[in-house]
Amino acid sequence: xxxxxxxxxxxxxxxxxxxxxxxxxxxxxxxxxxxxxxxxxxxxxxxxxxxxxxxxxxxxxxxxxxxxxxxxxxxxxxxxxxxxxxxxxxxxxxxxxxxxxxxxxxxxxxxxxxxxxxxxxxxxxxxxxxxxxxxxxxxxxxxx
Length: 144
Hints:
Elements: H1 4-27, H2 29-36, H3 47-72, H4 80-98, H5 107-142
Helix pairs in contact: 1-3, 1-4, 3-5, 4-5
């Protein structure tokens, strides 16, 4: 029972991520820019902008959900099980839609593979950052 909010927020991050990616696809000037680029090929550096945008969307939605869970639902456990339960719906969605692409042969393939991998582990990465910050603060506060 104490892990139900983590599962619900995991479902919410799926919805938030889907909405964020649909807005980015519709309203981002990046698509217009990519269409306007002459000579765009699979090794064009413009694909790094796609990596940056898609990774930022994934990480920002993960930060929002983990922050909401940590601050607003502080009475519930903030441990590995809660984080895995939060990450699981997004990982399953991403892997079922995109598969598990591990092709880094050129920048275009990187722009498809890296954001997918980041989406599949975003909440866990944010949790690790939170833990590192807390450990660093504990070390500073203890005088070591």
